[in-house]
Specification:
Layout: H1 13-16, E1 62-66, E2 69-70, E3 75-79, E4 83-84, E5 89-95, H2 118-121, H3 132-135, H4 138-142, H5 144-158, H6 166-172, E6 176-180, E7 193-194, H7 203-215
Parallel strand pairs: 3-6
Antiparallel strand pairs: 1-5, 2-3, 4-5, 6-7
Helix pairs in contact: 6-7
Length: 235
């Protein structure tokens, strides 16, 4: 049953509104403060960054990355305690300044700033337009910027010229997602789910990120971007 607010009748927030988030109290649906000073001890996963935010995760040199554990049976486990309610995924963060620069003492005005020259870039396999068979797989079209960027990284780091196979990453990714450590009050919002191997399943985008971390990338010559392979061991 639902009332005129379209809220469940046992949902007190429809009548009282969510409570203010604090250091001690910051569940999924609390009301976040707007001032940076009031957010200092509230996890970023509960309340997103604001102007002049002093929390480590909100500094300009912070980068976020998805975290989860995928096993050999393609089952991905996500930890509720790492779930970021703004990004809507389980994340961790790191500082860019903690890593060695790829090139030191280089500025944008230097001729060697670009790892790949414009002329060389235009000749790479990944720059070729998608053919009709590839376009027919909707997720291939939507995720082209993502898997193309991986081809650029492969060229820069390993000097190989490939057009990456997105369908390989789809097949290598999780087929089922489980979520651990979900508190009782949130179990109706967080439940296990399966990922279908369809070019029109939006969860394939999510799946490909984790498939990348588990199995890396492959060439679209071996695994064409025209259909999701059933066997990813042949190359």
């Amino acid at each position: 049953q639902y009332d005129y607010c379209f809220c469940a009748v046992d949902d007190n927030e429809c009548n009282t509104g969510p409570e203010q988030c604090t250091e001690q109290y910051h569940p999924r649906r609390c009301e976040c403060p707007y001032e940076a000073d009031d957010l200092i001890n509230i996890p970023k996963r509960s309340c997103g960054c604001v102007e002049d935010d002093q929390r480590d995760e909100c500094q300009k040199d912070s980068i976020y990355y998805f975290v989860g554990t995928i096993d050999d049976n393609h089952i991905l486990e996500l930890d509720y305690n790492k779930f970021d309610f703004e990004i809507r995924n389980t994340i961790n963060f790191a500082k860019i300044t903690d890593y060695e620069p790829y090139k030191e003492n280089i500025s944008a005005s230097d001729s060697s700033f670009l790892s790949i020259s414009k002329e060389e870039f235009e000749k790479l396999k990944l720059t070729k337009a998608l053919n009709q068979d590839e376009i027919q797989c909707n997720m291939i079209y939507l995720l082209r910027n993502f898997y193309t960027s991986l081809g650029i990284i492969a060229k820069v780091m390993n000097n190989v010229d490939i057009a990456p196979s997105a369908t390989y990453m789809f097949a290598a990714g999780p087929r089922k997602v489980t979520i651990s450590n979900v508190p009782q009050e949130d179990k109706k919002y967080f439940s296990d789910f399966e990922i279908g191997y369809s070019c029109y399943d939006d969860n394939l985008a999510f799946s490909s990120y984790y498939g990348l971390h588990k199995f890396g990338i492959s060439d679209s010559i071996c695994f064409p971007n025209t259909g999701i392979p059933s066997d990813i061991t042949k190359c």
